[in-house]
Amino acid sequence: MMIRSSAPVRLDFAGGWTDVAPFTDHERGAVVNAAIELRAQVTLQLGGESFRLESEEMGRSVEIPNMATLTPNGDLDLLKAAVRMYRPGPCRLLTRSDAPSGLGLGSSGGMDVALVAALERALGRFPSATELAHRAWDLEVRQLGIPGGKQDQFAAALGGFHHLTFSGDEVTAAPIALPAGFADHLAKSILLCHTDESRLSGRTIARVMSRYAAGDTRVVGALREMVDLADRLVPALERGDVGEIARLVERNWAMQQELDDGMCTTSMAALEQAMKEAGALGGKAAGSGAGGTMFFVFDDPARAASARASVRDVAYLPVSWASEGVRVW
Question: Taking the CB of residue 224, how many other CB atoms lie within 10 A of it?
């Protein structure tokens, strides 16, 4: 029996960080994000006499004889945790990703969702997209012990543009309807750039949230403003107002940098300066920041294309919105 699944990663416009406990334990979080067509993919083949785990994107594989030896040791621990969580029996589990980890695009969340979707199907179960998102978060945060919020898993499970709100363990996902033709216009007006620096978001998240828990007024104020910015982005997207979208994205980036002194690296600052000189209206780090990718919003596709031609020595990633979330077949 062979099962395949895939799930997209996401681009977060505002509110990232406010989906993470302990902030969500005490206050309402809010994120606006959109799924993009860079996908995590899983192939699950049941049967055999052992557990064969393979990660094409990492160039790693392990063969484990039984469940008793399926223990974490820093080598494909996410795949091991998924098998321990679902216990499908001996199998071959193969993953690949269009967006390697460390980019700030929620690639681990996409992989969480694709893994959970395939393993649920292997057990003959058909949970909703929302249920898959919650179980995928449980896999990464509770089973594997990596701190993080839920926006990545919900974007991967649902696809499309969403206004996500968070309170405790509860998540509300409200789709955002863009004007006719604006989604394509916006995609072509955004440049998504790799900074050539990977980052480990778990460490930064733990540091920032410990400061929130301690009542650091700088961190508390920044997080609360980011919630407001996410809420204000919804009508801007619904109107198709590129200028306002860029302004809110830019302000969110300023608030991200209030959270941690390492949020903006030297190369990120240089890239931001180059893009502004090329006409960017605003931009920010994707995800938690401190490396990974940045994206910049221009007033129209022609200006974005011109900036791409003038700002060289940068790795650009495609921006194509994913209207469909997780797929299983």
Answer: 16
For residue 141, how many C-alpha atoms fall within 13 Å in the half-sphere facing its CB? Answer: 22
pLDDT confidence band for 187 (50 / 70 / 90): very high
Q: End-to-end CA distance of the chain, in Å?
A: 11
Place of tokens 């049967």: 47
Q: Are strands 2-14 and 91-97 parallel, antiparallel or unpaired?
A: unpaired
User: What are the pLDDT digits (tens) for 269-305?
Assistant: 999 999 999 999 999 999 877 878 999 999 999 999 9
Q: Calculate the CA 275 to chain-centre distance.
A: 23
8 in Cβ contact with 35 (< 8 Å): yes
pTM beyond cutoff 0.90: yes
What are 54's strand-pairing partners? 61, 94
57-110 pLDDT tens trace: 889 999 999 988 888 888 999 999 999 999 999 999 999 999 877 788 999 999
